[in-house]
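4.2 Preliminary Data

To establish feasibility before requesting continued support, the project team ran the inverse folding procedure on a target of 501 residues. The structure was first converted into the token representation described in Section 3, and no sequence information of any kind was made available to the design step. The complete token record follows.
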């Protein structure tokens, strides 16, 4: 059944942390953050920021759940049952979660539907992965058996961004706890509502207390307290490259492992040999899906000269017909950007582009049809060169940058001329062209003749400044578990007896 939003759901006037499976009562005094609906600009709730003491309580709860609680020691079938129950409860509450996500983030229901299903599926997927893990044995050394086991690594700090709150925070949490770890999750201060409800649902589904704790607040306060906490064993972070670098520095001083999923400025390469109709559909989806706020956006559209005029003209015509509006409306293609400062930042790139010699092809303004809300016209510019800031910096909104190229080698060189290396898209029906791109493009994922298609079984993550580590079954096994070698002699061994003459 297709997920629709048919009603409103209640929202707490003050959102607090959730520790040990319980909602935290607000302290008499604290720092509050407005939670705003980006469609109407109205205040919908307030967030009571978790200070360092509250973060410490959350970490201690996760620590207790790891050191002496049932979760890491639980029979895998029982743990799997709970992860499956989480999937089912999330699905049962899908409409409420979708409502909160659209309301607070401005993401259109068309995107949120997929995110809500992905969120539920993440728990099923990692339950299966964790239940199929096996160890190693070594018998080559005569008289000895050595076996290698995997153990959960401990307590994780999981930090997620605002651009797809449910999909991204559930990916981190599911891949962490399925192995028997526990965690403290900090979502973005801008979009706390859906993630808060998601964590409540974990406990309604039977998760033991303390396995997932939630703290809310600004990155510089709550996030920093979490990353710096000495009892956190590892950090899984999804967000911007600058923040990722700052977190890695703190973690590095404490020798904590980090997995970083960071930003991108991905090339979407359209060759003369492409099926132009499909490449056009893919280019529009690549930059305008999810309000353009996605790490994997195909934001640098490189078009081979032979097809450039036709393709760009048709892209602009289609961009001008995109349905902007209420994110809860079934037909809306682009909703408002997530918060005011972000809209201002994205819009500021129009002047940046023009200062670097770009031509504005369409859009470039706040959408005039809306009196309220952080709506932006789908925007496209023709850049003067790949050195321009709009080709090198992540803009993270409905803002496409076009460049033209002549040869296959040019396309690959331009695509790789970036500090990022998250994903790339390639559109061509020519086998040699796609094989060369697949081999020579320096990015964690290359999508050929398709818009974003996430294969959960395959690794996902970035080269260069797009990250460290990967999401995916093998990567999560390596990041979230420790290896232990146990060495046992088959028969009692003869040992040299020190001090015995
Ligand atoms: P961000 O500013 O880096 O924030 C990400 C998270 O980190 C938020 O929860 C933020 O909290 C927190 N944070 C900020 N400063 C912190 C600090 N000093 N210590 C600890 N935590 C801190 O990123 P964003 O603007 O939310 O998200 C957009 C970025 O995420 C883009 O660059 C995008 O490409 C990237 N992203 C990457 C992937 C991927 O898979 N590679 C997926 C999605 C998004 P507050 O927001 O509350 O301040």
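Position-by-position output of the design step:
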């Amino acid at each position: 059944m297709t997920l629709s939003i048919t009603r409103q759901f209640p929202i707490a006037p003050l959102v607090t942390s959730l520790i040990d499976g319980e909602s935290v009562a607000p302290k008499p005094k604290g720092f509050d953050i407005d939670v705003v609906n980006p469609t109407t600009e109205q205040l919908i709730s307030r967030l009571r920021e978790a200070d360092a003491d509250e973060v410490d309580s959350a970490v201690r709860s996760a620590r207790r759940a790891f050191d002496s609680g049932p979760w890491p020691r639980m029979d895998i079938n029982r743990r799997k049952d709970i992860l499956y129950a989480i999937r089912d409860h999330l699905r049962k509450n899908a409409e409420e979660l979708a409502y909160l996500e659209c309301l607070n983030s401005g993401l259109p229901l068309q995107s949120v539907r997929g995110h809500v299903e992905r969120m539920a599926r993440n728990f099923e997927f990692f339950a299966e992965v964790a239940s199929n893990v096996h160890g190693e044995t070594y018998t080559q050394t005569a008289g000895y058996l050595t076996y290698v086991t995997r153990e959960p690594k401990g307590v994780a700090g999981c930090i997620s961004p605002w651009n797809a709150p449910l999909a991204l925070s559930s990916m981190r949490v599911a891949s962490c706890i399925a192995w028997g770890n526990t965690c403290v999750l900090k979502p973005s201060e801008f979009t706390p509502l859906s993630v808060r409800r998601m964590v409540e649902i974990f406990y309604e589904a039977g998760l033991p207390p303390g396995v997932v704790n939630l703290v809310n607040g600004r990155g510089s306060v709550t996030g920093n307290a979490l990353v710096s906490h000495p009892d956190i064993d590892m950090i899984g972070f999804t967000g911007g490259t600058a923040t990722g670098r700052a977190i890695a520095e703190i973690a590095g001083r404490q020798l904590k492992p980090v997995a970083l999923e960071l930003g991108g400025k991905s090339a979407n390469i359209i060759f003369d040999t492409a099926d132009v109709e499909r490449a056009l559909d893919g280019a529009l989806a690549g930059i305008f899906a999810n309000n353009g706020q996605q790490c994997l956006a195909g934001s640098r559209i490189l078009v081979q000269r032979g097809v450039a005029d036709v393709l760009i003209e048709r892209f602009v015509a289609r961009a001008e017909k995109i349905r902007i509006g209420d994110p809860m409306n079934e037909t809306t293609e682009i909703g408002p950007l997530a918060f005011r400062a972000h809209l201002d930042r994205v819009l500021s790139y129009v002047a940046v582009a023009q200062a670097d010699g770009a031509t504005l092809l369409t859009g470039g303004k706040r959408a005039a049809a809306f009196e309220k809300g952080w709506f932006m016209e789908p925007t496209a510019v023709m850049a003067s060169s790949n050195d321009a800031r709009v080709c090198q910096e992540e803009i993270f909104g409905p803002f496409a940058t076009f460049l033209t190229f002549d040869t296959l080698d040019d396309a690959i060189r331009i695509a790789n001329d970036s500090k990022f290396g998250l994903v790339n898209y390639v559109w061509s029906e020519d086998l040699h062209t796609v094989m060369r791109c697949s081999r020579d493009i320096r990015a964690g994922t290359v999508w050929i003749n398709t818009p974003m298609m996430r294969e959960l079984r395959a690794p996902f993550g970035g080269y260069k400044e797009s990250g460290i580590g990967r999401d995916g079954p093998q990567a999560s096994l390596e990041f979230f578990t420790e290896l232990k070698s146990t060495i046992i002699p088959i028969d009692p061994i003869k040992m040299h007896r020190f001090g015995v003459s």
